[in-house]
Predict the structure.
Amino acid sequence: MIREFASADVFYLLLAARWTIGLALVAAIGGGLLGLLIALARILPFAPLNWLAIGYINIIQGTPLLGQLFVFFFGLPLLGFPVGAWTAAAISLSLYASAFLGEIWRGALQSVAKRQWEAGAALGLTYRQRFTHVVIPQAVRISIAPTVGFLVQLVKNTSLTALIGFVELTRASQIITAATFAPLTVYLTAAAIYFVICFTLSQLSRVLERRLHGAR
Amino acid sequence: MALVRMEGVVKRFGALEVLKSIDLSVEPGEIVAVIGRSGSGKSTMLRCVNGLEPVQEGLIEVAGINVTAPGADLNALRARVGMVFQSFNLFPHLNVERNIMLALKLVRKTPKAEAQDIAVRMLEKVGLGDKRLAYPDELSGGQQQRVAIARSLAMEPTLMLFDEITSALDPELVGDVLRVLEGLAGEGMTMMLVTHEMSFARNVADRLVFMHEGRIHEDGPARETLTDPQTAELQSFLNAVLH
Ligand SMILES: Nc1ncnc2c1ncn2[C@@H]1O[C@H](COP(=O)(O)OP(=O)(O)OP(=O)(O)O)[C@@H](O)[C@H]1O
Ligand SMILES: [Mg+2]
């Protein structure tokens, strides 16, 4: 039975958006922690570790996210690990984020010039002190914009999980569209919600950058 | 006893032999100007003195510390040997004062208030007492270079190494930096400085070392050596830079 698109539907979409945000948050945190390890594994002077990290990054970056979702959603149960849509989505988006964040942060760390390392060394700072007091603060500043840029992509990419039946904003829109047959209204509403989330993120990055610039 | 002693030092980058058996002693209070063509190994020699470059052969001893011994505590050595580079290398995320305080706090464990006093004193010494809170990118090249010198001096070094510290500066800013060096010379600081400022070498340095193809080709009192070079290579180098 077809019904009118009503304010209750907007509310339903907003509730579903919580899962979009939740999933993006989990992937950002999980991917962030793993991404730090990936960045270190790329940088530390130990070749096998470097190769391992490069291989991992290539696999993740070289395959579609949707494929990765399917692998975890359909593949893990075949291996005897039954997973729900949420778990499969959380795992695959985290791995996906880790490869990209790892590369962003590696780039930031390596873009801090060799001369900065040397300036620290010439003052008698230990390797660790050079890393934590000279290189990392500069790398953080460099990496804010690309990191937030990627997180915005991540928020939008959570919509792919609709295809394995995870009910987030996009899946919820499909469900309401089926009931109301008002695709334009529904998807415009969903788009507006996505926009608000992503716009807030990029504004946050502005503020953060400005604050760090004030304190250099 | 010599403050710096280099004996038979050989430095290679892969197959390229950049330092070919360097022997050099620097006495406390001595000011040694190092000159030579581009690529003759001046920077490399300086960088070997504080262990920034490991050497393949020979012995380097600085202030009684054997730099070339395996497991030498290079960080302890570097805390006592200041080095200033051509490209300033201030920490861009820290203001001037905190640039100076960083190593004091981390390496010397100086309490914050005391480190701050030292920073102020050093800045006044290089004529930048009013730039305490500025960030490096708000300063001219000459000012940045003087902060870099202040940052090194704050560690109370027994030896200062300067590698072409005025080469990247606009000509009108060179004088301020050289005046700081003259002040240091007046205080009896031991210095090794790579420079292209021949008049500075002549007037301020005690001793002149001319490097040529990885060797010390001439070594003598600055004024005499510059006035009366003993080798054809130094003669032609001086002709090239002075004319
Ligand atoms: N890290 C490095 N790896 C390989 N070769 C190097 C390295 N550093 C210096 N060299 C080489 O060593 C030689 C001496 O270099 P060095 O920088 O000591 O010369 P320099 O006398 O300081 O020259 P300049 O006046 O141009 O600064 C050059 O041939 C240079 O290319
Ligand atoms: Mg040089």
